[in-house]
Amino acid sequence: MVATGKARRWSVLPRLLAQAPPRLLIVVGIAIAVLGVLIVARPLTSLLLLGVYVGVSAIVSGVLELVSAHRSPDWWTRLFGIAWIALGLVVLIWIGASLNLLPSILAILLLLGGVDSLAEAVVRRRRGERVRASSRVLAAVWGGAQVGLGVLSLTWPDVTVLAVAVVFGVRTLLFGVVQLARGVTALARRPDRGGPASWIRRPHVTLLDAGRYALAVLLVVVTVAGGFLNVWLQDGAPVVDAFYDPPAVLPSGHGQLIRADDYVGTLPPGAAVKRILYTTTDAHGVPVAASGLVIIPDATPFAPMPIVLWNHGTTGVARGCAPSLRDASATRWAIPALDSAIAHGWIVVAPDYAGQGAPGVFPYLIGRGEAHSALDAVLAAQRLPHVWPSDEVVVWGHSQGGHAALWAAQTARTYSPGLRILGTAALAPAAEPQALARDLAAGYASVQLTVLTAWVLVPYSETYPDVRIVDYVSPGARAIVREMAQRCPTEPGVIVSVVAALGVAEDRPLYIGDLTAGALGRRLGENGARGAWSTPLLIAWGQRDQVIPSSQQVAFVKRLCKAGNSVQWIDYSTVGHQDILQPASPLLPKLVDWTAGLFAHRTPPRSQC
Asked: What angle do CA 225, 229, 233 make, to 5 degrees?
């Protein structure tokens, strides 16, 4: 009766596997092992295969959980079985749509599998089943490792595909190797081979125990290391405090000061620094909040203090990437010639732009959004108490900030007519986003370019309805690209993006199609800095610029001259992209002198056009 009861509780699949001929086990083992290697080595290319495999595996695991005799009949085993089957069906039925949900589904499957393995180890030990100690230890450790990896996968979605592919791939590989070993062992034990049935039994059992303990130790080390790494990465992420949370209803009008507070970072000598939250509008004119810094010289003014509007370069596109959140953003290492500006009695306004600090979409290389954030920062700074600002402004900017500076100077006449823009200095400006994208795409697909593309694509897709991420990102990789857009280059978490980019690059590019064509290409073209400026321009760059080719700057200056602008330009043969704004840059004395001349209303130098 017992034997009959057990037979009824076994499913067909275990009986077939148990009774499979050795040669079939060898063939199946090799095929499954190859599948495991493919999943590990080609996570994106084999994403559809991985989805099918995971869906089928989840369903089979659930069925076995419900009908296998070696399982406990407790309610929780049936609950796990139903959950496995449901998740497997979700993956299979909506496999196309679920490719981008697959990382989260896999992470949940890892958590379920981990809890199931832990419960199996505990129940087996409690019931005194004849299971070797090494098997129980490995089951418990493997369960804990799966739970740990599942938590990490949910915390860092951009590496979930890689991490989970490794876990499922390795498990598939090991399963295939086990089937292969079973087949080879069964062939060796056959009577017609002339050997005793127990020739490998004792060494095989001892070796298997040792392998299980070794694997358990390795899993413990990897899980603990992953936990420490997760804590370190999270602790290094910037924290956006409550100062940056705007009220539910914004004050009417742009450039309104919402609140101001003392900046808690390093202060420059001879000046006070305030951080401000103010109203502005995005690229479509929708009211939003933005933040920034205002650096006010300590000297008692005898006349209104002129304003230098500093537009920072690329710091990422996430909310936590705001310069005003960093400790050294009000120093001469972050703002060129800051000490000289303070000595001259100039107020320096340094906007974060909307979407950094305050919530919203960061207008990365989106001209009107950048310009509005910059100009409204000046208007808000003029509303600070105990400050005597002038309405005269000289605009500075570097890289992305050079693009913002050019757009701010060109937009000010209609957007903020109360400000008098006297001139614009653009240092290594990203003046033509479409041309820059074309040049970068034609070169080596580096990790830096991969992350930079995410920083452009995500804000553009959130700003323009016709720019769709699905048109430019490989299936299943959208989570990776979106998470890259949440990383700042100064936080340790950017390592996760680098690892994800490197891992995916070994398979195939994240991006598909021509990034400079279609809707994205058109929008990049629309955001080029073109046309005529009514005030003088100073353009400076280095021939050793690693980010923006000097040929682009030469072409930009030619276009400026052709449009009839008054342009001064300086080309340094030994200067790189960041070098041009550092304290030792040969440009800084000329920048300060050029700016001082504009504030003094001296006749500007003759155009070099």
From this structure: 175
